[in-house]
Design goal:
281 residues, alpha+beta, 6-stranded antiparallel sheet, 4-stranded antiparallel sheet, 22% strand
């Protein structure tokens, strides 16, 4: 007898195949749009309903089942805006303390456990992660404002009401170079001409997605027929005179070089992917 597969299993393989044929540019675009839609989902069903219709279990299942919509991301999470005055009540409600992001001493990946992290020191406000896709569950309870790159992204996302991207930095746990995309979630419909202070005040949280550069290059290479012979370098070229190498090592000139722009969706950041054949042809 043929057993009917669960819905997730039936939909995903076809979708994955469809997207495997799309150029990287379109894959970044669909990922960006879906992360934006997740921010609206949280606004509608978590902040817009009393009681909320979203908890960690729903968020985890929904984001796992829709992972095919964000083909190049390694995980998504939602952090809440918590002021210092609200901290005690927040921690009592959740049954855990807001943790500080530890960026040093991460050489032992297996030692990375949120429960072993120190409480966040006193700040005006915090951005603790309350919901996460299973793939990034290690960031739950961590104050995203205690990490330099995450903090800058949060501030720029809420001031601009746009999807914004960090510079490349070492992601937690994997220790791989990556970037984070952030959308702010607001408690009211903001007029297009709202000031950045108005936007900041109306902010209730931050929906973010991480892109792990080595695994994203791996995914892109698997979509090429002749992956064995292609050498890839990825650069952050935001500062054209000082490109940051994000992936790949020594560059050997074999004569054939193909450069493509990687568009993560934030016009303030520029990236290039350089592909060349390993052997001279
Ligand atoms: N997500 C995954 N790994 C990380 C990381 C991150 N930030 N920061 C360092 N390693 C919840 O913008 C809000 C995700 C931050 C969102």
């Amino acid at each position: 007898m043929v057993q009917e597969q669960p819905l997730a299993r039936r939909v995903q393989p076809e979708k994955q195949q469809q997207q495997a044929q799309s150029p990287p540019k379109d894959q970044f675009n669909v990922s960006l749009n879906h992360v934006h839609a997740l921010a609206i989902l949280v606004s509608t069903f978590h902040h817009g309903k009393h009681p909320s219709a979203i908890d960690q279990k729903t968020f985890g299942e929904y984001t796992e089942r829709t992972a095919f919509e964000r083909p190049l991301t390694s995980g998504v999470a939602y952090a809440l805006k918590v002021t210092h005055a609200e901290r005690e009540q927040f921690e009592k409600e959740h049954g855990w303390t807001i943790k500080k992001m530890e960026t040093e001493d991460q050489t032992l990946v297996q030692d990375f456990l949120p429960e072993s992290l120190a409480p966040a020191p006193i700040q005006d406000e915090y951005a603790p992660v309350i919901f996460s896709q299973e793939t990034v569950s290690h960031i739950v309870s961590i104050d995203m404002m205690s990490g330099k790159e995450d903090r800058e992204n949060i501030l720029r996302a809420r001031a601009t009401a746009k999807g914004v991207l960090t510079s490349p930095f070492k992601l937690l746990k994997s220790n791989h170079l990556g970037v984070v995309l952030t959308f702010a979630v607001y408690d009211t419909d903001l007029p297009p001409d709202a000031t950045s202070e108005h936007r900041s005040q109306a902010t209730v949280g931050y929906l973010g997605a991480s892109y792990d550069v080595p695994s994203l290059v791996e995914k892109l290479l698997h979509q090429l027929a002749s992956k064995q012979t292609i050498v890839v370098n990825v650069y952050d070229t935001t500062n054209a005179s000082a490109p940051v190498n994000m992936y790949g090592t020594d560059v050997i000139d074999t004569g054939l070089l193909h450069i493509s722009n990687l568009d993560f969706g934030d016009p303030q950041r520029k990236h290039e992917m350089h592909c060349r054949f390993k052997q001279k042809r």
